[in-house]
Amino acid sequence: AEEKANLRVLTAQLEPEQRELVLLRFAQQLKLREIAQITGLPLRTVQSRLRAALKTLKMQLEKEDWR
User: Fold this and answer.
1) Domain containing 7 — which CATH number?
2) Residue 49 belongs to what domain range?
3) How does pLDDT run across 17-67, given as a tens digit for each residue?
4) What span, in angstroms and rounded, lies between the C-alpha atoms of 10 and 12?
5) What DSSP string runs through 30-43?
6) Cα–Cα distance for residue pair 46/60, rounded to 1 Å
7) Which of 3, 4, 23, 61 stands 20 to 30 A from 30 (CA)?
């Protein structure tokens, strides 16, 4: 429960589309193909948007020195 709460705090600054993908992938533990089916997005779009979101999260963590 604490991990999910932390994930929601971290993703709050993401664009809504990116936040949805991150939460589906990590909070719901869905596979990329499942996310593509749910969102109606092509698999490659899901992959690239998720990659961009994770890059943004990584920069946030480094900037805020989260541990």
Assistant:
1) 1.10.10.10
2) 2-64
3) 999 999 999 889 999 999 999 999 999 999 999 999 999 999 888 887 655
4) 6
5) --HHHHHHHHT--H
6) 21
7) 61
